[in-house]
Write a structure and sequence with these properties.
It is built from three helices and nine strands. It has helices at residues 2-19, 22-35, 37-41; strands at 45-46, 52-57, 61-69, 74-80, 87-92, 98-101, 110-113, 119-127, 135-143. Strands 1, 2, 4, 7 and 9 form a five-stranded antiparallel sheet that branches. Strands 3-8-5-6 form a four-stranded antiparallel sheet, with no helix packed on it.
């Protein structure tokens, strides 16, 4: 009986998700993937596990994301729906020191990170106003195993 309830709940959640802006999520994801295409062509791949994040907003604001990276080059890409006026992010280390940031002025920023000791970084996303009812954004961390140099943007 518990298995039936679990399957019914999963089906209900899937139906709700499909009706709750699935097209907008696909748009944000497509923009992020387009922004990351150059890094992917150079061998960077999405990191497994909790190395992606997302959000919904209606006005300018920010959201923080903690991501654990290994001691190898990394690349972060993000994408926002068409109503988004801007999306950028700043990366700080565990001491709060800013180590990198974007100033893209568009809805699909990217950032290459130099290899550094493995650890958790804080990525703070800052988004501009939203020209539509709501805007959605997604972000993903990428890595290139065995690589000792960092990709260009």
């Amino acid at each position: 009986m518990a298995g039936l309830r679990t399957r019914a709940l999963a089906a209900l959640l899937a139906a709700l998700a499909a009706g709750c802006g699935a097209g907008a999520w696909k748009e944000a994801d497509a923009r992020m993937n387009e922004a990351a295409a150059g890094a992917r062509a150079r061998g960077f791949r999405p990191m497994a596990g909790a190395h992606n994040t997302f959000g919904v907003f209606t006005s300018a604001g920010s959201q923080a994301w903690r991501v654990r990276l290994q001691a190898r080059p990394a690349f972060i890409a993000a994408g926002c729906t068409s109503g988004c006026t801007s999306l950028e992010f700043v990366v700080t280390d565990s001491s709060g020191t800013q180590i990198a940031g974007t100033r893209s002025g568009n809805a699909a920023p990217t950032l290459a990170l130099e290899p550094r000791p493995a650890g958790t970084l804080l990525v703070t996303f800052r988004y501009g106003s939203c020209r539509t009812r709501e805007c959605r954004w997604v972000a993903q961390a990428y890595e290139r195993r065995g690589q000792t140099t960092t990709p260009g943007p």
